[in-house]
Amino acid sequence: VQLQASGGGSVQAGSSLRLSCEASGGTLTTYTVAWFRQAPGKERELVARIYRGDGSKYYTDPVKGRFTISRDNAKNTVWLQMSNLIPEDTAVYLCAASRSVLSATYSPSNYYYWGQGTQVTVSS
Questions:
Q1: Tens-place pLDDT, residues 2-39
Q2: What is the distance, to the nearest Å, from the Cα of residue 59 to the centroid of all Cα atoms in its chain?
Q3: By CB count within 10 A, which of 44, 61, 102, 106 is most buried?
Q4: Cα–Cα distance measured from residue 78 to residue 93, given in angstroms and rounded to the nearest whole number
Q5: Burial of 96 (C-beta count, 10 Å sphere; 0-12/13-18/19+)
């Protein structure tokens, strides 16, 4: 499966952005899809993921209540709606897909398919 991420940009704190991860060559419902982010000098961090089995969702604590991950099966796309952005959200955001079991979906090393990153910059 090939992934194409888009939707990043430069915004002010308190703004919203919606990232999209569009897939080709595979059906996203058969994959766990996650959004990771990586800021300069920091490790890649799992932001949110939607599990391939029951569609259960996970969010890292700093984004809970502000970010929403969703899947559009008809468009073979996973969205990340980001609201009330803060400067600490500034990073390159990457989408990734995996067929690992649920317990393995928290580590980037278990994702085998990656899209290119999209930059999100939030200014105060």
A1: 999 999 999 999 999 999 999 999 998 899 999 999 99
A2: 10
A3: 44
A4: 13
A5: buried
